[in-house]
From TrEMBL:
InterPro entries: Rab-GAP-TBC_dom, Rab-GAP_TBC_sf, Rab_GAP_TBC_domain. Gene3D superfamilies: putative rabgap domain of human tbc1 domain family member 14 like domains, Ypt/Rab-GAP domain of gyp1p, domain 3. This is Rab-GAP TBC domain-containing protein. GO terms for molecular function: GTPase activator activity; small GTPase binding. It comes from the Eukaryota. It comes from Gossypium trilobum. SUPFAM superfamilies: Ypt/Rab-GAP domain of gyp1p. Signal peptide: none annotated. Residues 1-143 form the Rab-GAP TBC domain.
Length: 234
């Protein structure tokens, strides 16, 4: 994944940059063997390397994010925490943006098609770096609920366009075009907090607990089917 992380960047996309990123990621995999390495962490660690003074500082900031700010199990092998976050986000979209949610459901569009990358990469692969860093400022201060605020805001900002779509591809194109050109962080954060409204960490935690049993059940069933296929192959 190293060469695919911000390709073309004048430092990251060099042997020196690749080596620094590898050291941070490998170092964290030794610190937390349950997480190890998960796709998405390369973008998070890379942006940390660009803004922190040393590899050590980037490493410890990554540790703080994964261990103190974000939800447990988001980056484990089965991505159970990430699956839970996507279920919670879908519910919040229905509450905060009901017209959009109803339209997407009618088109059989699964919001996780776009939101999974947003949450795993903490928007670092989707938003311009200056906007991502402003989101991260609030993320470190207020916690993982900020990811929901930002994701909901992106949908709300393009509500009129999204309601006119008839194809899944059009939805993805609108959202990708929007995120890639969100150079004004104030625009995003104003919608995220002033228009989306207040959401408590406790409320989101309750939503997570509600979704966890069903997610774990589905993951267990998926694992059983996979093991059954492997047994049949033998």
């Amino acid at each position: 994944d190293l060469p695919r992380t911000f390709p073309g960047h004048p430092w990251l996309d060099t042997p020196e940059g690749h080596a620094a990123l590898r050291r941070v990621l490998v170092g964290y995999s030794f610190r937390d063997s349950e997480v190890g390495y998960c796709q998405g962490l390369n973008y998070v660690a890379a942006l940390l390397l660009l803004v922190m003074k040393t590899e050590e500082d980037a490493f410890w900031m990554l540790a703080v994010l994964l261990e103190n700010v974000l939800v447990n199990d988001c980056y484990t092998n089965n991505l159970s925490g990430c699956h839970v976050e996507q279920r919670v986000f879908k519910d919040l979209l229905a509450k905060k943006c009901p017209r959009i949610a109803a339209h997407l459901e009618a088109l059989e569009f699964d919001v996780s098609l776009v939101a999974t990358e947003w949450f795993l990469c903490l928007f670092s692969k989707s938003l311009p770096s200056e906007t991502t860093l402003r989101v991260w400022d609030v993320l470190f201060y207020e916690g993982a609920k900020v990811l929901f605020h930002a994701a909901l805001a992106i949908f709300m900002m393009k509500e009129d366009e999204l309601l006119l779509t008839h194809q899944v591809g059009d939805i993805i194109n609108i959202l990708q075009r929007t995120t890639h050109h969100l150079f004004d962080p104030d625009e995003l954060l104003t919608v995220a907090f002033d228009k989306i409204g207040f959401m408590t960490t406790n409320t989101i935690s309750k939503q997570r607990k509600k979704q966890e049993p069903e997610v774990m059940k589905e993951l267990d069933e998926r694992l059983r089917r996979l093991n059954s296929l492997r047994t049949d192959d033998k």
